[in-house]
Design goal:
globular, six-stranded antiparallel sheet, 169 residues, alpha+beta, 12% helix, three-stranded antiparallel sheet
Length: 169
């Protein structure tokens, strides 16, 4: 098994059994597992971020009307099936982690309409590992009781990123 397969199995177990999972008790009773695209090595990207000189704090509205605050940190540019794509990276001011919300050509069709999320990893040389195979739906995709930041307009791209989680059924 691959590391990704192990991750997906553990995530399904969490969704099925943990009371802190985003599913209601009734949903957990019928839960058969999340749906995913097949692993795609081409969408495991090592990118050197273009850091913003002015790292402004931005307010991002959530689906419930609340506001989430992030630092607009930098940008990555990469290729998806021959198409150029660029996404803005946000930093969670409290945890200091890089947060990447995005909507792509699969959104509203094969994946959650409001977009998906991804955490990226810092590498020792200053680049980032952006592995879209770990892209996931926000918790509000499963249960309206969750408040989720909406994907900023600048992170809505045309190319289809066929990696990670697909629509929840």
């Amino acid at each position: 098994m691959t590391e990704l397969t192990d991750f997906r199995i553990a995530k399904d177990e969490f969704f099925r059994e943990d009371h802190q999972a985003p599913l209601s008790h009734d949903q957990q009773q019928d839960f058969g597992g999340l749906n995913y695209f097949d692993e795609n090595d081409d969408l495991r990207i090592v990118a050197k971020p273009e850091l913003f000189d002015d790292r402004e704090i931005v307010d991002v509205q959530t689906n419930t009307g609340d506001i989430a605050r992030y630092v607009r940190w930098g940008r990555i540019t990469f290729d998806v099936d021959g198409q150029d794509a660029s996404l803005t990276l946000f930093m969670d001011g409290e945890a200091g982690e890089i947060f990447l919300p995005f909507a792509d050509g699969t959104s509203g069709k094969e994946t959650y309409g409001a977009g998906r999320y991804l955490e990226v990893q810092h590498l020792h040389d200053g680049s980032l590992l952006v592995d879209f195979n770990y892209a996931y739906n926000p918790y509000c995709a499963y249960n309206e009781g969750w408040s989720c930041p909406r994907t900023p307009f600048e992170n809505r791209i045309a190319p289809a990123i066929r990696a990670g989680e697909t629509n929840f059924k």
